[in-house]
Write a structure and sequence with these properties.
8 strands; GMP Synthetase, Chain A, domain 3; alpha/beta; Rossmann fold; binds adenosine-5'-triphosphate
Length: 458
């Protein structure tokens, strides 16, 4: 432990004692809540006015935020000056750490610190149709910086892996060519650095330091919009680096030509290399991502039934952050509220009650599902529950059984009763067929998604 660490730890210990005392006085906290949600927190940083507090997860963060006033009162009392607190989760720390490192670094930009997010590598980036192009372009830039696409511009909605890819490039270069200077920053930090350098009369030094880089990675470049002073500096650095065959990689939430408030000359520079998009992951990619994230948390994927991963993948794959959040919720739920060592479909349905596809279960009945499926396939309800085994009727029947299981959580036997008294193994095998179809077949996925929409409106 460094002197700084033990200094912060001592302050936090005294603060925690006060938080409990004040919380009890104000009847907002008791020992149980305090021990469960406050005791694992840490004070990571402290300056004249602000404290950075880190907590293990979402729940601790939420509960501490609810008591933020008490927390701020307590630390202000310990420090004998007014302190405001930022409370973040450990998982957010990595994004913030570089800022802290930069602050302490003697150089203007902090280039002598490695500010890459170490966890984001090509090895743990799952490739699928939605990101194949951007992954391949990023890898090419990492393998041969400055040679292929300059700049590489990766764009797409939030949470689709742009920051991950950007850092993967940096980590790859740092590992394979340690003599190369790599710098990762967000455009907001870049703007702050420019403003500070101007204020301190060091803008020339700042530019020189930047021009000395081999790889410049700038995240969320859209935030440069409207910051005219920084445009000038960035334009200069951009030209120097590109002319010297140094690699620049940028990310944004939209294509360069759609960023409003950027000078034309910058837009044209950004578009002059290669622009590649990232999209929401498709089903297989989502499942593979979930498996990678489980591995990262040292959870054996075999304790989770395949249909559970399929369920999360079909409900939360708009962005990977949502997928990760859903997985964390499931793990949290099963650790705290389930007695079983396996995580099955039923556990998942309970964990996501009210979160996954918002079909109102109170409104939904087997009969309604049968009607929707029959309409969708152009059949009658009678045909669906009949003994007929014609392929199209059987497929529709399997689909209806699967939807009853998924949305009504009905036992197999009961579903069998609804479909002309079929036995439970027939229903089980029907559900398995649809689950398999969902993994391998776009037609199944499309049908389930359209049927679920129909079930909501009908
Ligand atoms: N293909 C993937 N394989 C593995 N993890 C992924 C993949 N895509 C995204 N992730 C994970 O999803 C999370 C969000 O990704 P990231 O921060 O890179 O998104 P982003 O596109 O930069 O979002 P924003 O625009 O909001 O900054 C990260 O934890 C990242 O590791």
């Amino acid at each position: 432990m460094t002197v700084m660490d033990s200094y912060l730890s001592d302050i936090w210990k005294r603060t925690l004692t006060l938080i409990l005392e004040k919380g009890k006085q104000q009847e907002k906290l008791d020992n149980l809540i305090f021990n469960q949600f406050f005791s694992d927190s840490k004070l990571m940083d402290l300056d004249e006015k602000k404290a950075l507090v880190v907590v293990p997860g979402y729940i601790q963060q939420t509960i501490m935020m609810q008591n933020k006033e008490i927390v701020e009162e307590a630390i202000s009392e310990v420090q004998e000056r007014k302190i405001s607190c930022e409370i973040i989760m450990e998982s957010q720390l990595q994004k913030i750490r570089p800022l802290a490192a930069k602050k302490k670094a003697p150089a203007i930009t902090g280039l002598n610190t490695t500010n890459l997010i170490q966890d984001y590598t090509f090895d743990n980036f799952v490739v699928g149709g939605s990101n194949r192009e951007s992954h391949s372009a990023a890898l090419a830039c990492a393998y041969n910086p400055g040679q292929f696409f300059n700049p590489l511009f990766i764009y797409g909605n939030s949470g689709l892996g742009k920051t991950h890819l950007l850092n993967a490039i940096g980590n790859y270069v740092s590992e394979h060519a340690p003599d190369k200077k790599v710098y990762y920053t967000t455009s907001e930090d870049f703007v702050n650095a420019v403003v500070n350098s101007i204020k301190n009369g060091q803008i020339q030094e700042f530019k020189e330091e930047m021009n000395d880089l081999d790889v410049l990675l700038v995240d969320d470049i859209q935030f440069l919009a409207g910051k005219e002073k920084s445009h000038e500096t960035f334009f200069y650095i951009f030209n120097e680096l590109v002319n010297n065959k140094k690699q620049i990689c940028l990310t944004s939430d939209r294509h360069p030509t759609e960023i409003k408030g950027l000078e034309e000359r910058l837009i044209s520079r950004f578009s002059s290399g290669l622009s590649v998009g990232v999209d929401s992951p498709e089903f297989e990619t989502s499942v593979a991502i979930l498996k990678v994230k489980l591995e990262k948390q040292s959870v054996d994927p075999s304790i989770i039934d395949d249909d559970v991963l399929a369920y999360i993948a079909s409900n939360f794959s708009q962005d990977v952050r949502k997928l990760e959040g859903a997985l964390n919720r499931l793990l949290f739920y099963s650790i705290n509220f389930s007695n079983s060592t396996r995580i099955d479909f039923k556990t998942a349905v309970s964990a996501f009650r009210g979160q996954a596809q918002t079909i109102d279960k109170n409104d939904l009945t087997a009969s309604k599902i049968i009607r929707c499926v029959a309409d969708y396939y152009g059949l009658t309800k009678l045909q669906l529950v009949s003994k007929t085994r014609t392929k199209n009727i059987a497929t529709a029947r399997h689909m209806a059984m699967y939807l009853c299981r998924k949305h009504l959580d009905m036992p197999y036997v009961k579903i069998g009763d609804e479909f002309g008294k079929r036995d439970h193994s027939t229903v089980m095998s029907a559900c398995e067929k649809v689950e398999k179809g969902l993994k391998n077949d776009d037609v199944y996925r499309k049908a389930v998604s359209e049927l679920e929409k129909l079930m909501q409106v009908n």
